[in-house]
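Lipopolysaccharide export system permease protein
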Amino acid sequence: MTKIDKYIASSVLWAFLIVAVVLLGLDFALTFIEQIKKVNDNYTIQSLLQVILFRLPGKLAEYIPVASLIGTLMGLGTLAATSELTVMRAAGMPIWRIGFAACQPILLVSLLGMGISEFVAPMAEQKANLIEKFKGQESGTFSLTGGVWLKADNSFVYIDAADDMGKLYGIQIFSPDGQKLKNIITASSAQHTEGSQWQLNNVTETIFASDHVEKKSMEHANWNVSITPEHLFLASQEPDALSLSQLKNYQTYLKQQKLDGAQYELEFWITALRPIASLALVLVALSSVFGPLRSSTMGGRIFTGVIIGLAFQNALNLFGRMSVAINFPPVIGVSIPIIICLLAGIILVRRRG
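Predicted structure tokens:
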């Protein structure tokens, strides 16, 4: 890499870092304002701040494509405003060479984002979810929202939360008898013992007899269910809280059980194709800097980048969710906006060059 390549790469990298910090700061502030209404004696300000901070790594990985677009517009736009790009072009440096130099730091941060998505964000997101669940239980609110429903053998099970050590929290087990409900077992937590055996803690069982309802409480009870701890843990998490390997693992399990795993497959491909999406948006930014935004102000470039980024993100969500709704391979739905940006960027760069 020559000095001029390093200079272009550093300009884009610094602009990317500034944009990423601003986006994370805005996200932090808006989330704090939105969630402050949940604060009470149990779910304190400190708990809320912990939850928001734990979710920042996942937000960073999610913002990398848009930050790459705006960062490239800002970095190269600054060089264009000082006529440095004009001097480079006059010296015989082709646009593809400038684009190659700009893509290198973006590729680096995209790969770093993949590492965050695989190793850091899932654990942090799962800790944030557990804090929310624990504080909700301490305040006496037990809500059948935010967790997961499962069909386990002949029963229907609701799990409020789970950790990666195989412990479950806030369990309700509904056991039917034909068209009637036989009993409901509620437990504050459960841990796996061996094989298909689980131990339920702080158990309350409600039995629906033909002529009366009986209720009894126990400190512990055994629960025999055929689902493994790993799959129970994965089922209790939202798709965006899982790593690529966990998403792939749970997809395989759902296919074996002949269940729909389209949401997990969609999240897998959104995360896996994020580096390519970042590079596609860099190409769009490159064509814009040498085209309609050549003489634009910095504010104009940032505004344009935000509009393009929002359009891209909305298209990604739209085509991805449409593919799930019409039972189409999610990889194709996710790829459509990325391919459109990639082709548009290549065509426009070639025209400018």
